[in-house]
Protein: DUF669 domain-containing protein
Organism: Stieleria marina
Amino acid sequence: MANLNGFDANTVEPADDLEPIPSGKYIAVITDSEMKPTKSGTGNYLQLTFQIVEGEYANRLLWVRLNLDNPNATAVEIARRELSAICRSVGVLVPTDSADLHNLPCGIHVRVKRRNDTGELQNEVKGYSKKDAVAQPIAASQGSGTDAPWKR
């Protein structure tokens, strides 16, 4: 338990529901990383927390899970390839700890997808690039409108 003595919700505006950010490329840094057990308990995944650091969506967080320890060899191969892309995007090719990847700007390529279980829209990181290779994102609502289903 935590001591909340002195906190008064009457004096603080409540947090808004966060809608997914538009698909696009954003500058972000990894702010946290942690190995966690898989739901089945047969492996572990590396969870990375990315924080957008520039633009309209600065300070928004996105999470990536990499199945680095898993009985499914294909899942491990996919995770290792994604980790390679992350390492290359931040310029650390031989990290000794996941903390070596923290606070180094890179480009993350974000898309909006619908969850299979709830049907809700959520963000997913689908790629990485060096910071210099990322142009400013264009809000999907400025295009044809087909890229922003949550705004319909």
